[in-house]
Amino acid sequence: MTLSLLAQTPSRAPEPEPAHEAFLKLDKVERAFVYRRGTLTRPAKSFNAVDGVSLSLRKGETMAVVGESGCGKSTLGRLAAGLMRPTGGYVDLDGISFGELSADGWRDSRTQVQVIFQDAAGSLDPRLPVETQVREPLDLHNAGTREERRRRTEEMLMAVKLGRHLWKAVPGELSGGQQQRVVIARALILEPGLLICDEPVSALDVSIQAQIISLLADMRDRLDLTMIFISHDLAVVRQIADRVAVMYLGQIVEEGPVERLFSAPMHPYTKALLAAVPVPDPAVKRSKQLLMGDPPSPHAPPAGCRFHTRCPIATERCGTDMPEMRSFGSVHVACHHAEERS
Amino acid sequence: MTTPLLTVENLAVSIKTRDGGTVLPVREATFSIAPGETMALVGESGCGKSMTCLAISGLLPKRGRVSSGSAVLDGTDLAGLDQKAMREMRRRKIAFVFQDATNGLNPVKTVGWQIAEAVMLREGASRKAARERTLDLLARVGMPDPKARAKEFPHQLSGGMNQRAMIALAVAGSPRLLIADEATTALDVTIQAQILALIDDLRREFGMAVIFVTHDLGLVAEMADKVAVMYAGRVVESASVADLFARPDHPYTSGLLGSLPRVDERRSALQVIPGQVPPINAMPAGCSFAPRCPRASEVCRSERPLLEPHPIEPSHARVLACHKPVERAVA
Q1: ipTM (interface predicted TM)
Q2: Quick one: pLDDT band at residue A20, thresholds 50, 70, 90?
Q3: Which domains does chain A have, with CATH numbers?
Q4: How far is CA B286 from CA A300, B296, B319, in A?
Q5: Minimal Cα distance from B44: which residue of A?
Q6: What residues 157-216 of chain B have any CB closer than 8 A to a CB of chain A?
Q7: Cβ pair A290:B267 closer than 8 A
Q8: Are B232 and B54 in contact (CB under 8 A)?
């Protein structure tokens, strides 16, 4: 098995045909957390951080999951990575269902799924030279001979453009951007099919952020990675995603192709979210519709549509009936008033 | 042109390190701001933007001091003031809003108590008057149900509500200058938009000057009148927001704008500034940006450029420190 990492980047396929089979499928996934333990006389209280989320990704597709803090996007990432078991529904990756795996099977599945977190320094071993850390997954999974492992590690470190003089360094000697390159190298060395990125560039400065985004996009194209990209930064998402899912209080409220969703958002929450992001161009003056108030507590989500307490177009029905996800062409929206705005 | 409220000139800050050496997180900060004006101080982490503002408000860490330069507010040079006089200045004229409001507030006192304390100190109000003024301020910053919230502790409030409380505390006593150091960075976008709109309303109402310290160029474009870009402890370019975004002169500013993902369009490829900021104790001899600069030449590596008006189109509202500014397209 050779990595053709240093080869030219193939041009991306324009649009995969929609009938293609799903590589990653989440079906009505739920995850409950107990926030007050029960006693003899008092039942435990729990809430669903992720509440009935269905998504499906084709091979090579990048799905961004966006939303504000506490909306459940990181929990969704952990569920998709198999790092956490759903309390309802199922997750299926290329025929593997994480819930049914034995301990060995789960371990083998790690060659297929890898995760990158925001805190690169915290994800690395502070005392191990970075070269050893990048090679470690190959060692753990007994991939090839010692010589092959060494060569693949070198290729990978070159692919993430980490200067050779830094290969023997420990993470503390690297900058934040260099640390994130090491994390990316270690995640990709087993050539996983699925990469989950949870806020991978949020802690980085803009000039470094651009370097890492370009690197991730480049590696995705070379390795045909399927990616879930979790971020609160909509500008970054627009740069890297094929499709976007917008979450609010544990549920997906709108999902669709990135350009369509950004240029013609249908859900009022998506609209508000986009309008709130400052645009680095003083010539662009937009009418701002500010959302009032804070998001409600996920412990006690509002009845009906969860967004109705902050929604500028909510009607009586929104306070009582939970809207179903409906399709408008390639976009899926959970809003009673979607067609009035399409 | 109106007389500036604050003029900062060649300000430098030195900090003693534990091993006996000194580092200079700020080497040359120069800018000015008029009453009621909004200025943004932008740059990446470690560029000295926060230190500059801490120096202006006399809040430098114990090991730090202003080693040269001046910061003149309303005719008083802040750099020469002792602790007591500086405290008086903060009481009357300068207010600060930090990024982390939840930790910036006292966790064992109610929000109302803390604002009332500020009102008594700054406005010399009686306890009773302060209580009323507190509710008034909380209502003014858009706190929902001020009466109930005033009796709560910071941990009982959301991040957005704490930031509102912090702003109420800051604008008590109508300061002349409000420094917002990454004040909305930790907040969600929809809450950030609310807080920014609030600060802008208060600026108009009280006629305050506002300095936004930020790394978010989007925020700069929407909020500020003018902007100073800092790199490695120096202001490298300063201009009105419209000019700077339309025609960045400094290659660093231009690179920064090019590397920015935008929510209103997908860029075919993000421009990348190679490399990283030089470490604070190993600054290159010439221009600090030269090692990363696509336009750098011999002179850039040996001679440090001064902050001056543009050589071809001089205008006193627009200065930059660069030997090889980005060429302007001929109009």
Answers
A1: 0.80
A2: low
A3: 21-37+44-112+192-291 (3.40.50.300), 129-190 (no CATH)
A4: 59, 10, 18
A5: A205
A6: 158, 160-161, 188-194, 196-197, 215-216
A7: no
A8: no
Q: Which two tokens stand for residue A2?
A: 């050779």
Mean pLDDT of chain B: 90
Reported as a pLDDT band with limits 50, 70 and 90, residue A5 is: low
pLDDT < 70 stretches in chain B: 1, 329-331
Which residues 105-164 of chain B have a CB within 8 Å of chain A?
144, 158, 160-161
d(CA A187, CA A51): 29
Name the closest residue on chain B to residue A310, using Cα atoms.
Answer: B190
pLDDT at A255 over 60: yes
Write the CA distances from A112 to A14, A84, A105, A194, B46, integer angstroms.
25, 16, 11, 6, 38
Q: What is the pTM of this model?
A: 0.85
Amino acid letter, B236: V
CA-based nearest distance A93→chain B, Å: 30
Could you give the 3-state DSSP secondary structure of residue A27? strand
| CA separation for the pair A95, A152 (Å, rounded) | 28
CA-based nearest distance B131→chain A, Å: 24
Place of tokens 């080693």: B67
Determine the pLDDT at residue B270. Answer: 81
Give the CA angle between residues A249, A254, A259 to the nearest 5°: 135
Over residues A31-46, mean pLDDT: 87
Contact between chains at B217 and A211 (C-beta distance less than 8 A): no
> Residue B33: what pLDDT?
95
Starting at the edge strand found earlier in the chain, the sheet holding A45-57 runs A45-57, A24-36, A88-93, A96-97
* Beta-bridge partner residues of B140: none
Q: What contacts 24+ positions apart, CB below 8 Å, involve B116-124?
A: B118/B169, B118/B172, B118/B173, B119/B172, B119/B173, B121/B91, B121/B173, B122/B91, B122/B92, B122/B172, B122/B173, B123/B172, B123/B173
pLDDT classification of A8: cutoffs 50, 70, 90: very low
Cα–Cα distance measured from residue B211 to residue B53, given in angstroms and rounded to the nearest whole number: 9
